[in-house]
Amino acid sequence: MLxxxxxxxxxxxxxxxxxxxxTLGFGALLIITYFTAxxxxxxxxxxxxxxxLHALSVEAGADGLDTIIQDINERIQPVSGSTxxxxxxxxxxxxxxxxxxxxxxxxxxxxxxxDASTIKNPETSVDEDHQLWGQGIHLANxxxxxxxxxxxxxxxxxxxxxxxxxxxxxxxxxxxxxxxxVVSQGFLRRIDAINTTSHAxxxxxxxxxxxxxGTSDEIDRLSMNLNRLFDSNQSLLESLKxxxxxxxxxxxxxxxxxxxxxxxxxLQNNKSAHKAAIEAAIIESDQLLATFSALLRIAQxxxxxxxxxxxxxxxxxxxxQVADTYRAVAEDQQKExxxxxxxxxxxxxxxxxxxxxxVNLLENALNHTPAKTTISLSLKQSDAGPIGIIADSxxxxxxxxxxxxxxxxxxxxxxxSTPGSxxxxxxxxxxxxMHAVTLELHDNExxxxxxxxxx
Length: 455
Prior knowledge:
Blueprint: H1 10-63, H2 65-75, E1 84-89, E2 95-98, E3 108-113, E4 131-138, E5 144-150, H3 152-202, H4 218-268, H5 271-303, E6 311-314, H6 315-332, E7 336-341, E8 346-349, H7 351-367, E9 374-382, E10 385-392, H8 424-434, E11 438-443, E12 448-453
Parallel strand pairs: 7-9
Antiparallel strand pairs: 1-2, 1-5, 3-4, 4-5, 6-8, 9-10, 10-12, 11-12
Helix pairs in contact: 1-2, 1-3, 4-5, 5-8, 6-7, 7-8
């Protein structure tokens, strides 16, 4: 049983529209073909009749009526396939020869039905598709001569044209309707698959995806875009879950220390204990505020609201400024900083955010490497765009943790003794994503190499 929704689909309506257009096209073609074919056949019969009439009239003028009577009688002898008709009358209107009767004695072209009133032999089988097309003239001696032909071939051709086009138009419209039904059924199945998947995802099955046929049609492209949307939503939800868990886990310790310190100061009940507890609480509160500030900054960057303020900025200046700012810090930590940048390299972006990204990456190298480490910043132009590199000769990061360090609150075991919240690299990754910058970690052998691919 057909689904009633089939007839409401855009594909069925489009197929019906095409069927209607094809039918109109067949109608226009019918009219053109009908009149073209009819005109050609009519002109052919007219030419043959005029040629026959001219030959007989010349013969009558040269040899007299007796010769033409004999000639007409020979021509109207029963011959298979013959469609010629003649009528010859004397000056008084008396018929002398021919296979027609009851013909009007007037000059010019005549069209009359072929029936018992016009055919000499009534036993001849005729129907409404037979007509006499002929031409009459008065000869010099006053006699009247008419030569004509059966127009059956013209009338049958007209009927055949009409019938063939009627059948063709009907079949074309029927095929269009059937094609619309078939296409609509496939369209509905694919739309139902999209709806089923969407409902499953709304019900909590985040891993469900719309099947893709690989045909690269519009439904396939829509399905692939929706699947990418579902992937993004799943990633965001999992990230939200991970962030919520990480916040609960990482903030529980400082909040516990804060409460414990305040509780001990309350129990000791002396001025010096209260003062120390307040100072410790301020430090813990500053750390908590810094953590929440970093989270809010990442959220703001990921929303993309600052893209509207992008403008041309100098990457060369940013690298040089950051290197100058942190060179003294590196020296205090007994580390060497090297800078190698090409001049005149610019991109479109937010200067403050790009500076923040580079600062976070450089601070990561400074904070997690031992003394005597060499840290280098380089910037060069390549065919694909500017390439920035922050490399160090420290212990590096194992390859299986290269992606994990960009997760919020993720901290390696070796880094938990150092200050921080695990949000520096995630913030740098968010800024890089906002600027369409590729951020990759590689082994520097020894140490870590961060490669930034600018567009």
